[in-house]
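Comment thread on ticket #2218

A.B. wrote:
> Attaching the input chain for the structure job we discussed in standup.
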Amino acid sequence: MLDASITLPPIRNAKGEVIGVAAITRDITERKKRKILSEIPTNYPSLASWRQESPAKSAIL
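C.D. wrote:
> Ran it. Output below, let me know if you need it in another format.
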């Protein structure tokens, strides 16, 4: 799968009339992966202790 950002700026003639569009596509897959990874909690020790104290709740996860 590829995550992409697409920009379509207008191309104008000397009169300012739109005569077309330019397609600019950027692969943002790595940027999205970094964003997702940055949102993962880094406080795993407290999460692990919560699971040990509440085994029934951890089964639901």
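A.B. wrote:
> Thanks. Noting for the ticket: Helices lie at 29-38, 44-53, 55-60.
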